[in-house]
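User: For documentation purposes, I need each entry recorded in a consistent format: the amino acid sequence on its own, followed directly by the corresponding structure tokens. There are two entries in this batch. Please keep commentary to a minimum and don't merge the entries.

Assistant: Recorded as requested. Entry 1:
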Amino acid sequence: MLYVIPVLSMSNNFVRCLSCEAKLSTKLPLEELPHFSSEALEEHLNYEVSFVFRFLAMISLPLSVFPLVGLVVALLALIGTCNRPPGWPRTVSRISTVLASIVSLLLLAVLASSD
């Protein structure tokens, strides 16, 4: 029965850019790619960020309120997404790095003033 009814019919095809060596994904069938001009093809291609760095970007924002731990996770997410094209993982990792830095600096200021 599962073979008759397409429950999940999602597929991504991956291509590699010859000029920049970036890994790109598209929902278009590979047979249709040569029929597009490079300008028309750009709107069908997406840059891929690995699952690890997307996960780090997601957890870095809530962890940014914890001093030092949040900063380490946010910096790892920032390092993994800094050379990628703009997207939500890079934006979230930048925001969480700033927040985690502020929280960590506030902790250091409180510890320094308590002496």
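Entry 2:
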Amino acid sequence: MTEKYKIYLTEETKNRLIDDAELFEFFKSDGKVNLNSFLKELIVNYFEQYREDGDELIRSMADDIASVKSLKPKDARDIAGKIIRNYINNREPSSGRSSVITLTVSGESYGIIKIIENNALMESSLSGYLKDMFLSYLSIPRSKREEIIFADTYRSIDRAIDTCRLLSFTSGSGEYHAVVEPYMTVISKDEQCSYLLCRDPRTRKYHSYRISRLSNVFITSDTFVRDESAAEELRARGMRSPHSVMPAVHAVIRMTEHGRQMYKVIVKNRPAVTSVEGDLYHFDWPELQLVDYFKRFGKDAIAVSPRSLRSKLRNYYEVSLEAYGGTVKRDRK
């Protein structure tokens, strides 16, 4: 069963929701942000918490109001509900451009919408109820919002850590499959996103994976013995940067003057420099993170070594050029 609903929001609220959908990588096949898919996940994973928090607040306020002896408990609860709806939930600014989104629900999200319509609206419309839910969600710190959107993944990771069970998963795009010893989750200060810190049971190498990019998360029946020295090492690296947990390569990047200025101002996920020789910058950092960081620099940061890093960056620019209809000149470097 599928139904569509009109939800009225301010432009600011809509844009903040789009920002989260983009951060958590809800995309359509054409690369555009899939706000509808994101909102369905938000509704399914946040409804119970939102409802329970709201009921608890109403009960607490009703108890305080009912302490006035002339009021009956039901009247106190009604007053508390009105105060919350009119003064607490109404967080959107009264001014500003309004916007409307069309929410298409099916499956589990359809069921939640029907529960809301049948049991939770009181004096509010469905649009008003969902608007208040979205605003409540946006008032939560971003790292906690990620836990809401990827609730099932977090529960599986926490259980695997608590029971010392190997964890299996694939990337969201299906590029890789991994089976790891999970140790802990940490928050990246730069991104405000959480990472799983773990160890490969075969190679004994440490790895970090962004939790929002994991799919098909499965707790295996295989157990592992928790290594406290490994846990301490992962904790220390995670405090510096989750990215530093991954195996490092020694890389040399030649930067122009403009590239050096970019390196100074682009601080998000910036790799730590090991040494500098003129225009050559040396890094001991995970290769994947070097690719993600320096692919924004273009001709102002050229990978000299290792060959694998140079090849990955070159391939990124070749694919981009071909997408714009350009012709790539191949060489053997």
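Summary note for entry 2:
The CA atoms of residues 257 and 300 lie 8 Å apart.
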